[in-house]
Write a structure and sequence with these properties.
CATH class of the largest domain in chain A: Mainly Beta
Shape of chain B: globular
Number of helices of chain A: 3
CATH topology of chain B: Arp2/3 complex 21 kDa subunit ARPC3
Mean pLDDT of chain B: 86
Number of domains of chain A: 2
Strand content of chain A: 25-35%
Oligomer: heterodimer
Low-confidence stretches of chain A: none
């Protein structure tokens, strides 16, 4: 009798969750509200746990890293000296350029996007999804579709926002598609995430026109025609370009500049492509 | 030896705290360790262990709770995780009567089977429907690491939950 009882309950639970999946698939705003409420409690705790957890992780890694670090300090110190000198030179040139530009009355074409730094606080635990959460949300001005950078390269896009957190889908996620182009010749192509590739630190590069001369090592940046990604953000470098079987287009692979294994801090560009178009 | 006594409320509270703890470790500590290839699924272990130790009702409720946590936290369609976790809790609960002793072999086998079921559930719902057919790759590079890590974690967590179960019974 009791057995019968729990069988009925599990059937009801299954039916209810299928109904909920269907409903939230078509009306995502409802689940967003629930998640938002939940996260406003969870995220602060998570930040705390994160700090404590990382202390232990860092401590474990520190001892091995220390030797490395000492050697690298010497190299870096030498580099800093030469770079700061070069920087001074460039600064002087930049002032000059600014002055001349204002003389010509030109706008700054290569505008530097406003950015805000955020910390990665959680990742999807299944290897299936390459999605992570950051500790900035609506209250920090983050909006859906804002671009996320790391190591000066494109890392992902904000897919949903709560009050104090945002979810970022990285470009290596299997469902990610980025309209892109080669930096020097503006040939358009598509950068696709693929979980069969990302462990080799690669993404798929598709839709390259047969007539174009894309070669290995070409810089791939986000395209002007993308509706969500701001133009001219570096994604990575093309490699192993080959002609497709149908002899109509080329495909290949892309090595990203972002190191997806060590994502701890990211930069969010606080301007949307749609806003840029309006300007 | 001092005998620990638990009221009904404190029993539930302990279970809820265990689940929350596992959830936090799983989402915010493990994935941030860069040298780990995969991370164990603690919530899965807790769900099937409770099914095995306490029967199908408790297993199902634990599954619903774990699934709810995941659904409220991760993106995607709401109910996706509740469905799989509650089914796993219930299915393992049916084994509660036929087998019950302090042996680690059955939980290990179950951990493997449940891990497989859970991973294939995600594969079918998110990858197969987008016509991604590289099953051997997915099995060896995504599922196996995840299942192995979960298997190792099962040894530790199941023992703890088993001891807790003994304390509660006495």
């Amino acid at each position: 009798m009791k057995n019968q009882h729990s069988k009925i309950i599990i059937i009801i639970v299954v039916l209810l969750s299928i109904a909920s999946i269907t409903f939230s698939h078509y009306v995502p705003s409802v689940s967003l509200g629930v998640r938002n409420a939940f996260s406003s409690v969870i995220v602060p705790i998570q930040k705390g746990i994160n700090n404590v957890g990382m202390i232990f992780v860092r401590r474990a890694m520190n001892s091995t890293d220390l030797k490395d670090a000492n050697e690298r300090i010497k190299i870096l110190e030498a580099q800093v000296a030469s770079l700061s000198e070069a920087n001074n030179l460039l600064k002087a040139k930049s002032y000059e350029a600014d002055r001349l530009r204002s003389l010509y009355d030109l706008g700054n074409e290569y505008d530097i996007y406003p950015k805000t730094a955020a910390r990665v606080i959680a990742k999807d635990t299944d290897e299936w999804f390459q999605v992570f959460k950051i500790d900035k949300g609506l209250k920090d001005g983050i909006k859906v579709d804002m671009n996320v950078l790391s190591n000066n390269g494109l890392c992902g896009i904000v897919s949903s926002v709560g009050y104090n957190y945002a979810t970022v889908r990285s470009i290596i996620d299997d469902e990610s598609r980025v309209a892109s182009m080669t930096q020097h010749s503006f040939e358009s192509c598509m950068v696709e995430g693929d979980i069969t590739l990302y462990k080799n630190n690669r993404l798929r590069l598709t839709g390259i026109d047969m007539s174009t001369a894309v070669v290995d090592g070409d810089k791939i940046v986000t395209s002007n025609i993308s509706s969500k990604f701001l133009p001219n953000i570096l994604i990575g470098y093309a490699t192993d370009i080959y002609v497709n079987d149908n002899q109509l287009s080329k495909s290949g692979y892309l090595i990203p500049v972002t190191d997806f294994r060590n994502l701890n801090e990211v930069l969010v560009i606080t301007r949307l492509k749609s806003e840029s178009i309006k300007d | 030896m001092v005998k620990l006594r638990f009221g009904k409320f404190s029993k539930i509270l302990i279970h809820v705290l265990i689940i929350f703890f596992a959830f936090f470790v799983q989402t915010s500590i493990f994935p941030l360790i860069p040298f780990l290839a995969s991370s164990p699924n603690f919530l899965l272990i807790i769900t099937f262990s409770y099914g095995l130790l306490y029967g199908e009702d408790i297993g199902m409720i634990t599954g619903i709770f774990c699934g709810l946590l995941c659904d409220m936290y991760f993106n995607g369609d709401f109910g996706f995780y509740i469905l799989i976790y509650s089914l796993i809790g219930f299915a393992n609960g049916t084994l509660n009567k036929s087998f019950f002793e302090n042996s680690i072999s059955l939980p290990m086998i179950l951990s493997f089977v449940n891990g497989l079921a859970y991973n294939f559930y995600i594969y079918f719902t998110h990858f197969l429907i987008r016509r991604k057919f590289a099953i051997p790759y997915y099995v060896f590079n995504v599922m196996v690491p995840n299942i192995l890590f979960t298997l190792i974690a099962t040894v530790l967590i199941y023992k703890l939950l088993y001891k807790l179960n003994l304390i509660h019974r006495n």
